[in-house]
Amino acid sequence: MAKSGLLDKYREAREEMVQLLLDRGISDERVLNAMAQVERHLFIPIPLRNHAYDDAALPIGEGQTISQPFTVAFMTESLHARELDKVLEIGTGSGYQTAVLAAMGIRVFTIERIPSLLDSARRVLDSMNVRYISKSSDGTIGWKEFAPFDGIVVTAGSPGIPKSLVEQLKVGGRLVVPVGTQDFQQMKIITKTGEGNNYSIEEKSDFKFVPLIGRDGWPERNG
Ligand code: SAH
Question: Residues 16-29: pLDDT tens digits?
Fold first, then answer.
């Protein structure tokens, strides 16, 4: 049947994507399993679905993008999160990263600045029965009500390390955030080592994200 043919096509493409992630050095099986399960094509605008399993970022509207699979895998692996951990995601975008975290049994809290993007992400996530808690607001200030978190992942590029996010981590928890200019960022993997603002940092090679816009991010209109 045409439909199962199409499903098979996506499944094959997804298996190839996971193989590529392995080849690129992703080794956490929980991350690989989650990405083998989550149907990334459902988060992609229909005209671009043929590219859903390419290792590329793709436009999702409002000038934003769904991050490339390697980036999602790398950030998720860097969190070292375990089942039932509480993870805050800043930048829901398409909802794909949310679904990957939820597929690992993580309790996901996600914040998106642009209401229309959050609406579409919710539609897809709800149709897949994904469990998550979301709101539309400025994620650079975190989500105090649900803090502290075991992990926080920022999926947009920040000019610095958002202080409130470090504050809302548990001791031993990790914040993964791309920091740099609006063109290139280094991935900072921050482990909170004590109460307040004590942490250690690891840095990883170049990434390119859409800007994190908000109080502790870039101003709305950057000249
Ligand atoms: N995790 C997403 C990536 C989306 S791109 C995915 O898997 O598709 C980054 C998203 O961050 C964009 O949708 C952008 O609107 C959002 N964003 C930028 N600044 C933000 C802020 N301060 N708070 C919340 N979301 C923000």
Answer: 999 999 999 999 99
The residue with tokens 């603002």 is 197
For residue 25, being part of any structural domain is answered with yes
Q: For ligand 1, say whether the CB of 90 is within 6 Å of any of its atoms.
A: yes
**Among 185, 100, 217, 113, which residue's Cα sits nearest to residue 151?**
100
In the chain, the N- to C-terminal Cα span, in Å, equals 53
| pLDDT tens column, 53-79 | 999 999 999 999 999 999 999 999 999
The domain that holds 145 is classified in CATH as: 3.40.50.150
pTM: 0.96
pLDDT of residue 132: 98
* 67 noted as active-site residue: yes
Q: In the chain, how many domains are there?
A: 1
Residue 91 Cβ contacting ligand 1 at under 6 Å = yes
